[in-house]
Write a structure and sequence with these properties.
Layout lengths: L11 H8 L16 E4 L2 E4 L5 E2 L2 E2 L11 H23 L5 E12 L7 H16 L6 E7 L8 E9 L2
Helix pairs in contact: 2-3
Length: 162
């Protein structure tokens, strides 16, 4: 996306404003780990939960207590938390030069097979914020259980510049 009257790409911070997204406060670790670690030009984020106002937004497994739409909403919240952690670490999301990798873990039950549809919630939001040209590779996995009974956990690796 290029702004009108300019050959400069629209920044991630500008896209957030244009989308009407206000990032939540970055969540704090729930254990003995860091939310983000930078090594060179790579920023690794710990698994992000769908925590809202300090509490899990949803509890349950997709295919039993929750439907795919709730999973998408939970994953969107986890993605907003990831963006908040990245911004807190970097000072500005405009320093992100590429989203390299997205890993989505879904607590699923029985014959729930809509993992890709739920995973798209993270990929679509990251695409909307950073642009089509900065999209990542992605894995979406169904698991038996996740921390705090959450239905989703999201891991992201960003490439960053100065």
């Amino acid at each position: 996306m290029v702004s009108q009257g300019s050959s400069q790409p629209v920044s991630a911070e500008r896209r957030l404003r244009d989308l009407g997204i206000v990032l939540p406060n970055a969540p704090h670790p729930l254990g003995a780990y860091l939310e983000s670690v930078q090594s060179g030009n790579l920023l690794f984020l710990s698994g992000m939960l769908p925590i809202k106002d300090g509490k899990p937004q949803y509890i349950g497994r997709l295919g039993k207590e929750l439907h795919a739409d709730a999973g998408r909403d939970a994953l969107r919240t986890a993605t907003l938390n990831a963006l908040s952690v990245a911004k807190a670490h970097l000072g500005s999301l405009d320093r992100v030069t590429r989203v390299l990798s997205v890993k989505v873990y879904l607590a699923t039950y029985g014959d729930f097979y809509n993992q890709p549809i739920v995973g798209d919630a993270a990929s679509e939001l990251l695409r909307d914020v950073f642009g089509e040209d900065k999209m990542s590779v992605r894995s979406v996995l169904g698991v038996a259980a996740l921390p705090l009974g959450a239905p989703v956990v999201l891991e992201v690796v960003f490439e960053v510049g100065n």
